[in-house]
Amino acid sequence: MATTLGTPRDQAVDQALRDHPRAALDAESVRDAYRRWAGVYDALFGGVSSPGRRRAVATVNRLPGNRVLEVGVGTGLALPRYRREKNVTGIDLSREMLLKARERVEQEQLSHVDGLLEMDAESMAFADGSFDIAVAMFTASVVPDAKRLLTEMQRVVRPGGHLLFVNHFAAEGGPRWWVERTMAPLSRVLGWHPDFAFSDLFDSRTIEVEAIQPCPPAGLFTLVHLRNAVPNLLAVPEQAAA
């Protein structure tokens, strides 16, 4: 839904915002941003992000399969919430955030956490099909290329497994859209894309969507549950068909 503004001047400003370039993120800008955020992340974002994390982990806990990958594990806020039979591996690009997560694992004796690794989510070192479930909480709008992130998550999760995302997705209109679009050039400073849209992550016409659920507070965040595609083993290879 587009923003509707009355005067020609307002319409010109609206169009200028739509045309405003988004500041590109890269791995180094993400590292820099979360080096700054690491010490205060839990205090600033832990509370507002808690309902989304709880809902995502509750979904993971209900799903079949115990091999879980948490992409963008950050300071490990979600780690205590997984059921103990789940074997959780966490990755993050920020060394400073991982240090906080490792302290949490040690202090809370989280024996179900198999490892916390410094790794680029767009180029993971895991073999194909290593996990039953991959979950990315507040990560998709942080990485430089969210579709590449999705492709990597699809690769490391077994066919028929599950992909979960909790994220802020941009409004389609209204005052919130205006604020998000205005903040877009600050992406490198913030460490995420304020104007991140569903289409930046996936094309609903080409992927199996299990569920899309708004999360508190006030639907600011959304839980997206995708099913990893099962290869069509009955498909006839092109050479054979020819």
From TrEMBL:
One of its GO terms (molecular function) is methyltransferase activity. The keyword Methyltransferase applies. InterPro entries: Methyltransf_11 (IPR013216), SAM-dependent_MTases_sf (IPR029063), Thiol_S-MT (IPR052356). Keywords: Methyltransferase, Transferase. GO terms for biological process: methylation. Gene3D superfamilies: Vaccinia Virus protein VP39 (3.40.50.150). Residues 69-165 form the Methyltransferase type domain. Pfam families: Methyltransf_11. The keyword Transferase applies. SUPFAM superfamilies: S-adenosyl-L-methionine-dependent methyltransferases. This is Methyltransferase domain-containing protein. It comes from Teichococcus vastitatis.
